[in-house]
Amino acid sequence: MKIIISNSSSLPIYEQIKQQVKAAILSGALEENQVLPSLRALAGDLKISVLTTMRAYNELEQEGFVTSIQGKGYYVMPRGSQLMQEQFLREVERSLEEAVRAAAMANIGDEQLIEMLELLLEVQ
Prior knowledge:
about 120 residues, mainly alpha, Arc Repressor Mutant, subunit A
């Protein structure tokens, strides 16, 4: 797992870590039940505080993306878990809202937008 921290970003470092891990989980780059780098290893690699990595991992756990097993580390939650499913639903909702806004800006009507979605569903 490759995490890149930008000092010029307006996002705090823990948030940058959280977003990149979340994106890797949602894209499938991190598979379910896969162990994440240890807090100390990630902090050492990124040359940041262990507390910063802990905050990122804890927030990922609160949001349902990872789970911690004491003494063993943090693991990616199975895709079938209720919290993970809820996260996927939220991601789909965000994407659909963005598509609806873009369609409105392009003066694409509901019927045409639905046709586009149906075509995309057929390709899958």
